[in-house]
Amino acid sequence: MNKRILQTLILSLLPIAGTASAQDLGKLVEAVDTDKAVQSVDTDKMTEAVSGDSVDYKKAYDSVDKQKASESVDMDKVKEAISTPSE
């Protein structure tokens, strides 16, 4: 379950990741405090969203407390990852 939660949160960072080079994606992932990110998810609602191999992305999105999720991201690290020049 935690793997699905982290995958969902990482997918939510993809718009930001589009501006960073491939080598900086690791820095973007490091910018997320996974403990706080996991706490931002209503596991009952997320469990309803995931059935077998399919995911109802609307329900998964709705299972995340957006305020708590935003607090799990260190924006200084995100800015650093985005501003790092690619080699």
TrEMBL record:
Protein name as annotated: DUF4148 domain-containing protein
Signal peptide: 1-22
Keyword field contains Signal: yes
Keyword Signal: yes
Organism whose genome encodes this protein: Halioglobus maricola
Alphabetical UniProt keywords: Signal
